Amino acid sequence: MPLHRIVSKCTKYVERFNKFGTSDNHDSAVAKALALRQTLEKYEYLKDYERAQLINLAPHTAEEAFCLVPSLKEKYLVTKLRITEEELQYILDEISKNTVCF
Length: 102
Prior knowledge:
6 helices, elongated
């Protein structure tokens, strides 16, 4: 496969799954991603993979997030690292404000 076809396919893939805006506005997309990262880092009890899953799966409600990311449910029910539905909903709202849902 010629290199230009590979680059073209990669570009289409990235554009399809890009959650932070169009490639026309690169600086804005980077700023949104950094702002979201800073927001999520405040919640030290969230693991990196949980943050990534919340961004990629984009659940709309805390209940949906608990179903899609089972480790969050454990933190809600069992461990001392309690996460409330209100906190989780706030996190989801922040993700929604800083990402583009398709």
